[in-house]
Design brief:
The chain is mainly beta and about 575 residues long. It contains one helix and 39 strands. The strands form ten sheets. It has a five-stranded mixed sheet, with no helix packed on it. Strands 24-25-22-27-28 form a five-stranded antiparallel sheet, with no helix packed on it.
């Protein structure tokens, strides 16, 4: 009997111990999860949320991990995917230990582009600790919540525009912004979405992408700035504008402030519109012939007793005035300030509207004299007048930039620091080395994504000897047999008023029998492509192939015929 009670007591004690271990010692008992966050949160200002984990149980925790789920409207500041869930490994936690795990989080004004939804609790942060207690294989978990303070609009954004405007009238939209978050911000960009009836004309600062994105970079706490945009409307109706300020973190861009305004556009009684080469946003090039069309519309006006007069004033020195060809009865004279003016007069204009036109060439040279000579715009002021009613238009056409490349070959080129071996004139079956110099000249605009390339013909080898006076050197693409040189950016007037980017590389040539009596090819046509920052278009240029004729090498010119 005594044995029975002893056995029973042992079972009870063991059961109690197991109960304590599994449901007290291994559950929430002895586990502390403490949040330490800011008292104030502002959109776009990353903050550190520290989660403290304490072990006051009687056992060591093995392989502990802490996960954090964010409420809607918050993202991890260093996460490029826009997710709202993160796990950090804590490791082993000893008895009596207290560990702090930091998370960097940011509140956003709206969902970033490309993120359909930020999944998370509705209004609280949730931290969950998972661990295995020493002596057991069971996984234990504990969850705690933290409700953040109300998010303040620390980054202020105001968008203003006229309440009303007439179709064809130029207006100005002002975007004012200020950093009131209490800390310096970087990676900022402003983006505006235009209504379909709005035609962009210009801005106080040139856009960095298209005509609606400005990379404003950093803004110190307490600082403010503004941006002014000019344009006109082509149709009546409500015209909404939406503006967002985004902040880059990793490869993601998160909106931290949004604003909007709307303009009621009314049909003007007399409107003048224009396009160039049948395009409202045509980008011109040096030497282009521009065909302007000026159209007028009359809304509710009777046939004017004094007829209708239209004028076009040419306000850019890059217009080649001698090439003006007016059509539809236009005459060339001088307007305000002596500017060239084309005038049309219609004694009996069509009240439904009509159009006139002229053509003119762009000069063949930018006329750059100073570092500030860049980002040229061809401006034309149009006006239509019927009795006392007047409609005006300021029309701008951007002039694209130009980047030239030269490709020159040399045999004797000690100045480059590369010594060429072999013989001149070249001989069939004998190796001769040459250097090729690529030099770039950039004119009126900043360019980016510059790529220079040329094919290496059969019988010629890229030796690997390369030099450059800028970051980035030419490399050889074995698959395409091309020499390729890439540069991130080149500023306007580089190589024209300053040092030209230049690269030198060595080629070796072994002429074959079929080349005898001819100049042997060394490098194919050199092609350059780059994106014009001012206009957004891709520009191209090229240089002719290089042969053993070497016209630029005074010591070897005319000695390239293969013997």
């Amino acid at each position: 009997m005594k044995g029975f009670w002893g056995w029973t007591l042992g079972v009870v004690i063991a059961g109690c111990a197991a109960y304590y271990f599994l449901f007290l010692g291994g559950s929430s008992a002895g586990v502390q999860i403490v949040f330490k966050g800011p008292e104030k949160i502002a959109y776009g200002a990353p903050f550190e949320l520290v989660i403290g984990v304490g072990n006051s149980s009687a056992a060591v925790w093995r392989g502990a991990s802490l996960s954090l789920s964010l409420p809607a409207g918050f993202v991890f500041a260093n996460d490029s995917l826009g997710t709202s869930f993160m796990v950090k490994q804590v490791g082993d936690v000893g008895v009596g230990s207290f560990i702090e795990i930091p998370f960097t989080v940011m509140a956003v004004a709206e969902l970033p582009d490309g993120v359909d939804a930020i999944v998370g609790p509705v209004d609280s942060f949730q931290a969950q600790l998972s661990y295995v207690q020493a002596g057991s294989s069971a996984v234990f978990e504990k969850t705690e919540e933290w409700v953040p303070p109300v998010v303040a609009s620390g980054f202020e954004l105001a968008v203003t525009a006229p309440e009303k405007a007439a179709s064809g009238e130029q207006i100005e939209i002002t975007i004012a912004y200020a950093n009131k978050t209490g800390e310096d911000l970087d990676g900022l960009a402003v983006k505006i979405t235009y209504p379909s009836s709005f035609v962009f004309a210009s801005a106080s600062t040139d856009p960095d992408s298209g005509n609606n994105v400005w990379n404003i970079g950093g803004l110190k706490k307490g600082s403010a700035d503004s941006l002014a945009i000019k344009g006109r409307f082509t149709a009546a109706g409500s015209a909404p504008f939406t503006v967002s300020v985004v902040r880059s973190t990793g490869s993601a861009k998160y909106p931290i402030a949004t604003g909007s305004t709307s303009v009621e556009v009314e049909a003007a009684p007399l409107v003048v519109l224009a396009d160039v080469n049948d395009q409202p946003d045509y980008v011109a090039h040096l030497g282009d012939t521009l065909s302007y069309t000026l159209s007028y519309t009359m809304d509710g006006l009777k046939a004017p007793r004094g007829g209708l007069t239209m004028t076009a004033d040419l306000l850019s020195p890059l217009f080649d005035i001698a090439t003006v060809v007016p059509v539809d009865g236009g005459t060339v004279g001088r307007g305000a300030g002596g500017a060239p003016r084309i005038t049309w007069y219609m004694a009996k204009p069509d009240t439904e509207g009509g159009s006139v036109g002229f053509s003119i060439k762009v000069k063949n040279d930018y006329g750059i004299r100073r570092l500030g000579d860049r980002n040229f715009i061809l401006k034309m002021h149009g006006e239509v007048k019927a009795d006392t009613t007047v409609g005006t238009l300021d029309y701008e056409t951007k002039l694209a930039g130009q980047t030239d490349v030269s490709s020159r070959g040399y045999f004797r080129d000690a100045a480059s620091g590369i010594v060429n071996k072999g013989m001149v004139p070249p001989k069939v079956g004998n190796l001769t080395e040459y250097t090729v110099h690529w030099k770039l000249t950039n004119y009126a605009t900043d360019v980016r994504g510059v790529t220079v390339r040329a094919k290496v013909p059969q019988g010629v080898t890229f030796t690997g000897a390369v030099k450059s006076n800028v970051d980035g050197k030419p490399v050889y693409d074995l698959a395409t047999r091309e020499v390729v040189w890439r540069l991130d950016r080149i500023s306007a007037t580089t190589g024209l008023l300053g040092t030209a980017p230049e690269a030198v590389f060595q080629l070796s040539s072994v002429p074959t029998a079929d080349m005898k009596g001819k100049n042997a090819p060394l490098l194919g046509v050199t092609d350059l492509s780059a994106t014009d920052d001012f206009t957004g278009i891709v520009i191209h240029s090229s240089a002719p192939e290089v042969t053993t004729a070497l016209p630029d090498d005074a010591t070897a010119a005319g000695q390239g015929i293969v013997q």
